[in-house]
Write a structure and sequence with these properties.
With about 100 residues, the chain is mainly α. The chain has a domain of about 70 residues. The chain has four helices and no strands.
């Protein structure tokens, strides 16, 4: 049985220094705008669910507890705040790029 040197067995494509690297959009198949849109939809759905649970608590629905409603409202608030922070960072990056000297 012939022994093979493990280092010689590994071959790399050296035509490009970043040949093995993929961009985020290539790896996931989605761009930033699409990912941000999906996040916006999820936040909206979370807020709608929290509002629905709050309404059920107000109507004394025995299947929904006050704790569950408060937890859903807090999750919706945190997710909205995170989305606002991402938007603020995007706006700041846009302004930074826009104000760069040419």
């Amino acid at each position: 049985m012939a022994s093979m040197d493990p280092i010689k067995a590994i071959r790399f494509d050296t035509t490009s220094p970043l040949s093995g690297a993929k961009s985020v959009s290539q790896a996931s198949g989605t761009g930033f705008a699409e990912a941000f849109g999906q996040a916006l939809e999820k936040v909206s759905a979370t807020q709608a669910d929290a509002a629905d649970l709050a309404k059920k608590v107000q109507l004394d629905d025995p299947n929904v507890s006050l704790e569950e409603s408060v937890l859903a409202m807090n999750k919706a608030q945190v997710s909205f705040q995170a989305l606002v922070q991402v938007r603020n960072r995007m706006v700041q990056a846009y302004h930074d790029i826009f104000n760069m000297p040419v």
